[in-house]
Specification:
This protein is an all-alpha fold and about 100 residues long. The protein has one domain. It contains three helices and no strands.
């Protein structure tokens, strides 16, 4: 898979996770969130803090993959695969709560 496409899939997976999180907490409250780190972050910083944390972690993974790809393409793709999987698992677990 081309690197730009893989980065786009990473971003979409995490947009899905973020958007489904917002819907979930709007319907069921913060108690529906299973990740205690996200709960604490939300309690302390609200949606802006969770959004910035999501952007920062996705950006970190993307930049790391871009730097790895020229010499360690397989490692970069494994990193992106785990990142996509994390976003999808988060999003689908949020959807399951709805």
């Amino acid at each position: 898979m081309p690197l730009p496409l893989a980065l786009g899939v990473l971003a979409l997976a995490h947009v899905f996770d973020w958007a489904s999180f917002l819907v979930m907490i709007a319907r069921h409250g913060l108690g529906a969130e299973a990740n205690p780190i996200v709960v604490t972050l939300f309690e302390e910083t609200g949606v802006p803090g969770v959004t910035l944390a999501k952007l920062a972690t996705v950006a970190f993974a993307a930049v790391l993959a871009v730097f790895l790809a020229p010499k360690r393409r397989r490692m970069a793709m494994v990193l992106l695969t785990f990142g996509v999987a994390a976003g999808l698992v988060g999003g689908f677990s949020n959807i399951a709560t709805l």
